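FORM 7B - TANDEM STRUCTURE REPORT

SECTION 1: FIRST PROTEIN
SEQUENCE AND TOKENS:
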Amino acid sequence: MNDSGHQNMADADPGASAQEKQQEQEKQQEQETQGNEPAGQPDLDPAAEQGTAEPPVQADQARPTPRPARRPRPRRRRRSFWLELPILIAVALVLAVAIKSYALQAFFIPSGSMENTLEINDRVLVNKLVYDFRGIHRGDIVVFNGDGSWDSGPEPVSQNFVAEFVSNFGSMFGFGQPGEIYVKRVIGLPGDHVACCNAQGQITVNGVALSESSYLYPGDAPSTMRFNIVVPPGRLWVMGDHRSVSDDSRGHMGEPGGGTIPETAVLGRAFVIIWPLDRWRFLPIPATFEQAAFSKVAAGPGLPLTLGLAGAVPITLAQRKVRNRRGRENR
């Protein structure tokens, strides 16, 4: 009965057992497939399976090298323009006074006493350093203070560096009176014999006639006033180029110094016209003052001394030779 019952059940549903076997086989295949895959591996891109995927990025390329951190720079505090402005003005003022005191200064020509060399309203630049390196020359156009010579007041004296700076600083603000300022041409130096006039109506300096046609005002004579003077030490004889209207040394001969001015009163040499622009030009020394006769030096105390030294040298050498001979004979 049992055998027959078992057989009957198997024979009753043969298709069901075949389906169960097929399902079990599919489950086993799925388990085997999952077992072959590495754990945690991501699904592959279909493009990668076809061989078109890009190569993986290296770790060094993917992560940029970190740069060292920069230290923040301390911010400089900007000074306010209104705080710097007084400093700039003070520096500019000091420089202006220094240049005016020791180097260059511009002067305005108010009269026609130096025409046609200098005309009214011309501006000239005066070199204040030149006489620190050379003496005043005949023919120089000089600017000077008339105090103590042609005007009342004490005679100007040479000031030291600090006193001159303070004086010019005060004059910029109206403190102190610089005196009347003149501009003239130097004709005679200390010790020169200046006279008017020779038979040709020319002024002579140490007997040398001056040919002044290159700078005298057209139609003017060298001088209608006669004079004959030896310039005292430390003083100068000066005249204007427009002789018929110039108030110069000739007009002050009755005053102390006989019309001459002290060298200490000279502020500097006018060497160029800077305004107006159409009259811009240098002011050279006229050729008449470069004559060879003016370069001759009179024999003074230095000449006998030089001659004495020249004679002493051969005498000394002769004495040495005599002594050497005597020394050899004694041996």
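SECTION 2: SECOND PROTEIN
SEQUENCE AND TOKENS:
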Amino acid sequence: MANETSTPMHDLKDLYIEQLQDLYDAETQIISALPKMEKAASSPELKKGFKLHLEQTQTHIKRLQEIFSGLGTSFKGVPCEAMKGLMKEGDAVINMQGDPDVKDAALIATAQRVEHYEMAVYGTVRTFAEHLAERDARKLLQKTLDEEGETDKKLTKLAEGSLFKNGINAKALNGDPISADSPAKKTRADSSPAESPVKKKRADSASADSPLKKTRVKA
């Protein structure tokens, strides 16, 4: 979005171009982030989704370049600060430690924040293009907007699952399972030894040579 270094806005077309430049910068940031998100994901379906969206985003950039060419203007503008913030959050998720399913759920949350930002801006510039009678641009922008919406739905399906398959959110419910060699597991095992004093006392009270058993035998 525009900041103090932006070109002055004199009419809707100026704003339209500025918003397109914002989108272009946002898409280039996403191009850089998606391979890292794919690598950080554990779910094969999520990895595949990030890979496919990378290819899709490359197409989105080509469409924007086509629009800029039609306008006779440069696609270079001020950096998209909003996307920078989202990418910073994304880097924190990529580097987080913990249960793989929980991390996948966090990656989906991050990806959907990005999608929702893109959908908001694409919807805005699509409407601007309509007011400016930029019909070809409007069609291209609508196509991208539809694809962003479909990507968001796919991410939701991965998170929530379906009638016959648990989603990533459900898998993340129980958190990180304790491995056999982990300190926590060993501590739990040590706190409940097989030959605890209580168990020994119970065994001794009901042993073959106990006074109670001898009394029963004499009787």
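SECTION 3: OBSERVATIONS ON SECOND PROTEIN
Strands lie at 161-162, 165-166.
DSSP finds nine helices and two strands in the chain.

SECTION 4: SIGNATURE
Preparer initials: ____
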